[in-house]
Specification:
The complex is a heterodimer.
Chain A lengths: L1 E10 L4 E11 L2 E3 L8 E3 L3 E5 L1 E6 L4 H8 L2 H5 L2 E2 L8 E2 L6 H10 L2 E9 L4 H9 L5 E7 L4 H10 L5 H14 L3 E5 L3 H5 L20 H15 L5 E4 L9 H10 L5 E3 L7 E2 L7 E2 L1 H10 L3 E4 L6 E7 L2 H11 L3 E5 L7 E7 L4 H16 L6 E2 L13 H9 L1 H10 L2 H5 L13 H16 L15 E5 L4 H6 L3 E4 L2 E5 L2 E2 L7 E5 L6 H12 L12 H4 L2 E5 L8
Parallel strand pairs in A: 1-4, 1-5, 6-9, 9-10, 10-11, 11-12, 12-13, 13-16, 16-20, 25-26
Antiparallel strand pairs in A: 1-2, 2-3, 5-21, 7-8, 14-15, 17-19, 18-19, 21-22, 22-23, 23-24
Chain B lengths: L13 H11 L6 E3 L2 E2 L2 H14 L3 E5 L5 H14 L2 E3 L4 H13 E5 L1 H7 L2 E5 L3 H4 L3 H4 L4 H7 L6 E6 L4 H5 L2 E4 L5 H13 L13 H13 L2 E6 L1 H4 L4 H15 L4 E4 L8 H12 L5 E2 L6 E2 L6 H6 L5 E5 L3 H4 L2 H8 L3 E5 L4 H4 L3 E4 L9 E4 L5 E4 L10 H16 L2
Parallel strand pairs in B: 3-4, 3-13, 6-7, 6-9, 7-8, 9-10, 13-14, 14-15
Antiparallel strand pairs in B: 1-2, 1-15, 4-11, 11-12, 16-17
Classes of the chains: A alpha/beta, B alpha/beta.
Chain lengths: ~550, ~400
């Protein structure tokens, strides 16, 4: 039992906007009332919000681990000692697993979604999440370059997605995944064909009889048919390419009428022509999103300083390799996906980096519905999750933002509307939307991101501070599942978090279709593919899909 | 299976049969201290005492146990402030260490099987070391002939002398020992079209290397399998760097990957578990309470050769047989704890020896194939014994109890 007494509560999902009130927690949930003798936190003068929810991050699995191996220099500079309650570790842009859990919790985040796991490597991701304490974690399963899936899509024809829908559900069940991710659909497969790519939604994936558009349509339809809590999560084709905003719009048009979430929209919002200097098309995309309530995005803000680019979009990494000339990993994963890693740094004086930074801010400041354009840095691609507090200050503090705008490459700024001195300052209520209430709603996590009765007792309490960066960097209290995890900025305990996985029924008969496709495309046996090990799958919470349209 | 024992193992190769046999015949007593059979708790107590008194304990082995036990080994090493290093065969670590410096283009086995038009075994002899590999990848002569249809496949072997794998190959390039670096660097020049001074490169098989460069240029998907010979000498690390640099260059003209062949069955898992828990894949010291990694300094062989460690916990590794002689000699002089399902020379010489239920035989677990793909290990046989993971956890719990935390 715990009463968080008399704080200013920001709980936008329940229409609470800075009202002074008590939040009562019992049995891991928010409750209506507690006896007066219940233990209490005196939150007078403090800000109370639900625990943070990160909708798009890269924290676990083979890609992240390959990036860790590339970063001994960063790790050497940022070691963490073992304590009575903490395992030791290393930080930097790609922290070790334990450190990842602790640092998210210390930042007031209690739920994190890893945005890209190859299904074949689900065991690896699950094993890392098991070693990522405190936060509840989910992962999205990569399906956009999957050869058996391509065959099902090709054979399904334009109407019903039938077997595709069953296969999507089968894959989620087999892996313990939460949702479906498409990364450069078709393009990663083409990368394995002599380093090529697709450049439009209608390019054929050579020899496979599908196009990116067909993959997008089929999978998005299946996800909606299954009523998965989270819509299809799309990393569009042509990431980073000047002029790619047209591909992004084309993707949104194709998915019109179906739910879809676009990942790291900033990287897909460039005007200009390929190979030339990009410019901003953020206003057009922000406007389009505003008009389509079935669509949402996270921003993928770039923050100046070190980053590590980690992506299933391997051809993008090859381009970055040519830019940095530094370390580069490519890893082809049979039948499913690819992987590319390049350590990177964003610099204020660099035209492209400054433009990327500015486009992210434009998307935030121009979007009229914070529920559907939410915060991410695509950690660690645009910067570490540790830079969220600074990003929040950029959104909330116009004076600070304008100072920063004056520091960066001005040619880039002139290609944006930031020069118009966008006046908007995010309110605390809006910050609560883009960092917890919005992501939770987009993920379909009904118990997360709010403080209504029955919600998970995940709460962050901030000390009021004029410097919003400082305020959001060091919460006074973080409560997870009703337990006080952080007190006065110090970790008090570090319990395990839950795996959040979807529960989507499928027709068992799909296995008869999948088995021969597996035997053709994989080097592991079909029987060994689904994860069954209880120690990898527990403790977990199942979030049910609502098939037959009752999902939304 | 008959009467709870394996009667016959099917679907395995000779190496697999030997692997099963070592883990199923004549299991030694569950626990011994100084050669005397003791109960499990006493052995745990003795282990905790040894590790508790040690100034700088060493935890090594790991490549032959499951990921769950590797995870427990790292936790124990952290708790006792140890140096931990997989310390398997040198081939298992060197290419990984080099890839930290420049990265790596790689792929899983299924990709090689289904896409690779050109495969180059560089000082690798998988017919002898990994008998199932070429047939599984349809790279043996029969497999290449029948795979056909979609694309032609070529296997090229580079080695000191003709090997069994070379006999399966389309082309063999004889490369004198100690010239790997020169050959790899010359290949980089050939691939980039940089002219070479043929007199200076007189000892190199330049014609063969030139043809190989042409084959890479002409292929859509190529693969290099570096083997133990590449990294066996003192120049191993530099050779590995040169190979990865060559593959990086090649990857700009075709889709080219490298897949280092490893020896220990879960060497990749050891590297992966260490990396996710500490940020480093090998040679980690917890002596200062946080992980530090220095590949030479904190390698198992290094700390043993310099006599820096005063107790060792060895997991699934016959260290006395496989460490360099000076390291092995020093290992004999310090108290050791061995956790291993097998009866090994190292276990026989240990102060404390736990004979465990084997992962993949008696206990379920997971392992990472050398291409990184995680696979489940089944448990066809029952066993009342503790597995490596349980032994390591019991020791860690006892150490924690003694510390009062």
């Amino acid at each position: 039992m715990l009463r968080i007494a008399q704080g200013r509560v920001y709980d936008p999902a329940n229409g609470v906007d800075g009202d002074v009130r008590d939040v009562c927690l019992n049995g891991g949930k928010v409750v209506e009332e507690l006896p007066s003798h219940a233990p209490r936190i005196d939150a007078r003068g403090m800000i109370v919000m639900p625990g943070g929810v990160d909708i798009h991050s890269h924290i676990a699995g083979p890609k992240v681990n390959a990036a860790r191996k590339l970063a001994p220099e960063e790790h050497r500079a940022d070691p963490l000692d073992r304590t009575a309650i903490m395992r030791s570790g290393t930080g930097g842009t790609v922290p070790s697993t334990f450190t990842t859990g602790y640092r998210y919790a210390l930042l007031g985040y209690t739920t994190v979604v890893d945005a890209a796991t190859p299904p074949l490597a689900a065991r690896h991701t699950l094993a890392e999440l098991r070693d990522t304490p405190i936060v509840d974690a989910a992962f999205l399963v990569l399906m956009g370059n999957n050869l058996p899936m391509f065959e099902l899509i090709r054979d399904a024809g334009p109407d019903g997605a039938g077997p595709v829908t069953e296969a999507v559900a089968w894959w989620l069940e087999a892996t313990g995944g939460y949702g479906v991710k498409l990364v450069n659909p078709g393009g990663v497969e083409m990368w394995k064909h002599g380093n090529r790519n697709v450049t439009s939604l209608d390019d054929e994936v050579e020899g496979l009889g599908v196009t990116p558009r067909r993959v997008l349509e089929a999978i998005a339809t299946s996800v909606d048919e299954l009523g998965l809590p989270h819509p299809v999560h799309v990393h569009c084709n042509n990431l980073g390419v000047a002029g790619n905003w047209r591909t992004t719009l084309d993707t949104l048009d194709t998915l019109q009428g179906r739910r879809a979430h676009l990942a790291h929209l900033q990287f897909h919002a460039y005007g200009g022509t390929p190979g030339k200097r990009p410019r901003s098309r953020a206003p057009e995309l922000a406007e389009h999103l505003d008009a389509h309530p079935e669509h949402s995005a996270d921003v993928g803000q770039v923050m100046f300083g070190p980053a590590t680019t980690i992506t299933a979009d391997a051809p993008v990494s090859a381009r970055l390799r040519e830019i940095t000339g530094g370390k580069w990993v490519n890893a082809d994963l049979e039948a499913e996906t690819g992987c590319g890693i390049v350590p990177f740094a964003y610099r204020e004086r660099n035209y492209v980096h400054a433009l990327q930074w500015a486009i992210g801010l434009e998307l935030f400041l121009l979007s009229r519905d914070p529920w559907r354009v939410v915060l991410s840095t695509d950690h660690p691609n645009g910067g570490s999750f540790l830079s969220y507090p600074r990003l929040i200050r950029l959104l909330m503090d116009r004076e600070f933002r304008n100072e920063q705008i004056d520091r960066v490459n001005q040619k880039a700024i002139r290609r944006t509307v930031l020069r118009d001195r966008l006046e908007r300052e995010y309110t605390l209520g809006e910050i609560a939307i883009i960092t917890r209430a919005g992501p939770a709603r987009l993920l379909g996590l009904a118990d997360k991101g709010h403080l209504g009765v029955g919600a998970d007792a995940d709460v962050t309490v901030y000390g009021e501070h004029e410097d919003r960066e400082q305020m959001f960097a060091t919460p006074r209290y973080v409560i997870k599942g009703g337990r006080v995890i952080v007190e006065d900025g110090e970790l008090r305990e570090a319990p395990a978090g839950d795996l959040l996985r979807v529960e989507a029924d499928h027709d068992e008969a799909i296995e008869r279709t999948l088995r021969p496709l597996f035997e053709e495309h994989y080097s592991v046996q079909f029987a060994n593919y689904p994860v069954r090990e209880p120690w990898l799958l527990e403790p977990a919470r199942r979030i049910p899909a609502r098939r037959d349209g009752s999902g939304r | 299976m008959a009467a709870g024992a394996l009667e016959r193992v099917t679907g395995t190769c000779m190496i697999g049969d030997a692997w099963f046999a070592e883990r199923t015949v004549d299991a030694p007593p569950v626990a011994r201290v100084d050669g005397r059979e003791v109960d499990f708790a006493e052995a745990v107590e003795a282990s905790a005492a040894i590790l508790g008194e040690a100034r700088l304990p060493l935890v090594c082995g790991l490549g032959q146990t499951d990921c769950e036990s590797q995870r427990a080994a790292v936790a124990l090493a952290e708790r006792i402030g140890a140096v931990i290093d997989p310390a398997g065969p040198v081939v298992d670590g060197t290419v990984g260490a080099a890839s930290q410096a420049i990265g790596l283009s790689t792929a899983t086995f299924g990709e090689l099987r289904d896409r690779a038009e050109l495969v180059v075994a560089w000082r690798a002899d998988p017919v002898a070391s990994h008998p199932r590999l070429l047939p599984r990848l349809r790279l043996d002569r029969a497999g290449r002939a029948t795979a056909g249809g979609d694309f032609d496949r070529t296997l090229v072997v580079i080695d000191v002398q003709r090997t069994a794998t070379a006999d399966e190959a389309d082309a063999f390039i004889e490369l004198p020992p100690e010239l790997d670096f020169e050959a790899l660097w010359s290949m980089r020049a050939l691939v980039r079209g940089v002219p070479l001074d043929r007199d200076l490169a007189a000892r190199l098989p330049l014609d063969g290397l030139g043809q190989l460069a042409d084959r890479f240029r002409a292929c859509g998907y190529g693969a290099v399998l570096p083997g133990p010979g590449l990294v066996a000498s003192a120049a191993g690390y530099v050779n590995a760097l040169a190979l990865l640099a060559l593959v990086r260059d090649l990857a700009r003209i075709a889709h080219v990957v490298a897949l280092p062949l490893r020896q220990d069955g879960n060497a990749r898992g050891a590297e992966d578990v260490l990396a996710w828990q500490t940020g480093y894949p090998a040679a980690v010291s917890f002596a200062r309470g946080h992980p530090r990694a220095r590949p030479g300094e904190f390698s198992a062989a290094g700390v043993l050769e310099r006599g820096e460690t005063d107790a060792a916990l060895i997991v699934g590794f016959d260290a006395l047989r496989h460490l360099p002689p000076r390291a092995a000699d020093n290992l004999r002089r310090i108290p050791t704890i061995v956790v291993d399902p097998r009866a090994t020379e190292t276990a026989a010489a240990a102060r404390v020896a736990f004979a465990t239920a084997a992962g993949g035989v008696h206990r379920e677990g997971t392992a990472h194939r050398m291409d990184g793909v995680p696979v489940p290990l089944p448990a066809p046989l029952a066993s009342a014994r503790a597995g490596d993971e349980q032994v390591l956890a019991a020791i860690a719990a006892r150490v924690a109890g003694a510390e009062g935390t």
